[in-house]
Predict the structure.
Amino acid sequence: MPALSEYSNVHNTVFTIITKKGYKLWYDKITETYCAEKDGWDFMADTPCSLLGIISIFEYKNPQTYEEYWWKEESSLSEENLSDHSPNYTSVIKK
């Protein structure tokens, strides 16, 4: 069992974090997506945790103006070359 994972019992915490960051938050019943907006920048995702992740990308990149692929980060990491083995570590829940 990990210290934290995506599950419905963390949704309220996610909603609190998003709103405390100054975003307006809503659920779009038509598209069945969670949405947020701040200063005209709008985001949507299938789950609350995913929405927080998308917002984190925005905050990390900190774009000043919109342009296509503003979120893209050049890196040697990709889904294809991620390790399929966990590193050697002791989880905090076992300490």
User: Anything to note?
Assistant: The longest strand covers residues 33-38. The beta strands are 24-28, 33-38, 41-45.
